[in-house]
Design brief:
- By secondary structure, the protein is mainly beta.
- The protein is built from two helices and nine strands, in the order βββαββββββα.
- Strand 1 and strand 2 form a beta hairpin.
- The protein binds zinc ion (ZN).
Length: 162
């Protein structure tokens, strides 16, 4: 069996940036099971997994455009400190949920200057080239329910509300 649409594939993966720092890994955990063809993975990685078989190992370099996108300067905004009502100590690196014109987003404080706070609503991996080392560990047919939902149901079932 090879990876194609409507298959559930399990992969072990390690994600590093160009500096070689590990950003995410399935090492020492269960492999990641995902529904192929349902955009569960970043496009650049999903594309390279097409047709692969159990035991295949691959190194995939994903440019930002096929990963988490380029950084959007419009998502970096200066807002008045009063917007954070109730939070006295605003520090660089803090994350907040915010309602924006792009919907509900997590924004991270990137600069604090007096009464002005600069927040960045980009995905933390936006603009980052992704280096994946992947090993395919399992492939199976997806269930009807998984296909309807567009994601994998593990032993615990759905875990999402629909
Ligand atoms: Zn579901």
């Amino acid at each position: 069996m090879n990876i194609s649409a409507k298959k559930v594939a399990s992969i072990h993966y390690t994600l590093t940036n160009d500096a070689g720092e590990v950003l995410d890994t399935s090492k020492d955990q269960e492999p990641l099971a995902y529904l192929h063809g349902a955009q569960n993975l970043v496009p650049g990685l999903e594309k390279e997994l097409e047709g692969k078989a159990v035991g295949d190992k691959l190194d995939v370099v994903v440019e930002p455009a096929e990963g988490y996108g380029e950084k959007d300067p419009q998502l970096i905004q200066a807002v008045p400190r009063t917007m954070f009502g109730g939070t006295d100590n605003i520090e660089v690196g803090m994350a907040f949920h915010a309602e924006t014109q792009h919907g509900r987003q997590t924004v991270e404080v990137v600069e604090v200057d007096g009464d002005n706070v600069t927040v960045d609503g980009n995905h933390p991996l936006a603009g980052v080239r992704l280096n994946f080392a992947v090993e395919v560990t399992d492939i199976r047919e997806a269930t009807e329910e998984e296909l309807q939902h567009g994601h994998v149901h593990s032993a615990g079932g759905c875990g999402h509300s629909h």
